[in-house]
Design a protein that fits this description.
MetI-like; cell membrane; phosphate transport; 2 strands; transport; two-stranded antiparallel ribbon; mainly alpha; MetI-like fold
Amino acid sequence: MDATPTATLPPAKGQPRAVTRPGDRIFFGLTRGSGILLLLVMAAIAAFLTFRTFSAVSQDHGNFLTTFEWNADATPPVFGIAVLAYGTIVSSIIAMVIAVPVAIGIALFISHYAPRRLAGALAYVVDLLAAVPSIVYGLWGALYLVPRMQGLTAWLNEYLGWTVVFKQSNPGTAARSLFTVGILLAIMILPIITNVSREVFRQVPKAHEEAALALGATRWEVVRTAVLPFARSGIISASMLGLGRALGETMAVATVLSSSPVLTAHILDPAGGTFAQNIASHFGEATNFGRDALIASGLVLFVITLLVNGAARLIIARRKEYSGANA
């Protein structure tokens, strides 16, 4: 009796496919090595920051986490990150509140509403904005945005000052505040969030949109019921990319913000500071101990970034929905 060939079953779901060809083995080894190398680089950065942090924290005269002052000339020196952490987080939140809705709206307009020629031109402009150097944004913010924020800050102080958040202690002063920095950061991260969201919206299966249209949905209902649920994970990822740049932005913030060791809930007052701006301002003139303290503040920013990205991954994992893309 002739032997009949036996069919090989595909590997079970979740198990890697058997690698047999030499090219496949080489590619598999390269990808695995790249992933391991990335983990090693991250571990090396964390180890370096931690090692340099211990020498600074052990000699710090104040409490590193709660002291407001950052004074390398004091005897003994005093370094605290409370104001820097507050300024970094508040300015980033302001930027995200402004940038995310606008970026999603622009991305939806380019991908689903605008004519093809107009969509191409807008996409090109957004790409150009993403390529503008930070120092250019900083100079524009200092020379153009800050003087023109006077009217807005005065209006917010007059009509929303009762909220404490929008109260200005010294009306008429230059608008070199966390609020102005937040607006500048929103403009800077807008192209990043827009570009990623636009590409995610383009990946929505046409079958989903056509099914919604066949059921009598309007264009907005198609976007609300088919496009946004499918792209939710991508929107969160795009927002986290923008937040990462907002947390670590240096030159633009240093050019615009008038920092001081004052922690206040009034975001219109010229006070506060950010980690990156403080490092850029003090690193050149810092002593060896002062540089260790700046590296320690960098470690805190590193940890905050990891926590933010970890939280984003948890949100994506918990809110992931079935779609035609992962069937």
